[in-house]
Amino acid sequence: MLAALQAPRMNAIAERWICSLRRECTDRLLITGPNHLSHVLEAYVEHYNAGRSHQGHGTGLRAPDDDPNVVPLPTPPDRVKRTRRLAGLLNDYLPAA
Prior knowledge:
Order of helices and strands: HHEE
Number of helices: 2
Strand content: 5-15%
Helix content: 25-40%
Largest sheet: 2 strands, antiparallel
Radius of gyration: 16 Å
Number of strands: 2
Shape: flat
């Protein structure tokens, strides 16, 4: 593993992810114990990688787990399915069948 001095961006990337986790999730919940924290973190990681769009350079508002070879077509608002996570704190939106 690289030392922090050899990879100066490593700390910045980790801090950005932790800030996103706190701002979007844990600052809005009362964590009741280690099992609850584990459940919340698993739900957020799944949402972050699959459901949340990213604005980074060259991502085209895609989530990290999106297929780069598929171009999403615009979906009419009445044909969108919302999946609620953590009692509605996190929401995933997918085209309805």
